[in-house]
Amino acid sequence: MSSPNIHNNLAISKNKGDPVIGQTKSMKAIRNVASALTLILTGATSMSHPSIAQAQATSPTTTGVMAILTVKAGVTREQVMAVMPAEIRQTVQLYLNGQIREWYSRGDGRGVVLLLDSRDVAEAQAIVEGLSLANLMDHEYIAVGPLLPLRLLMANPERQQ
Known about the structure:
Alpha-Beta Plaits, 2 domains, four-stranded antiparallel sheet, 17% strand, disordered N terminus
């Protein structure tokens, strides 16, 4: 047998003008503001800590270079296909040598994306410029490495308990 008070409370809480609902909304707003303030203050405090500031100031480690190759305007399909057999052999050899980690076709069909195992952009440029298609393609290079914000997690491990 259920208590009449439970049914009465349920009926009261369904009313739109119920003061309990108003209090609940106010409490949620206060809790959200308090959470935001805590996050802001925690971030400001941690950024002023020397070990964390030092971790962010470190230059990023380059673990590879992404090369985006796009067929130049005015280059015909026939021109590309004429050098494709040599290009494929060179690309496979670079992969077998460990210089290309991954390679993909661009989704728009206008070229390739290579992830090169190189220490810097200059080394990646030297690799790509040795390819048969290099003079028919525009090149864009992006050095990549570990995700920098992860250093914040490792800067002060004793605070993570």
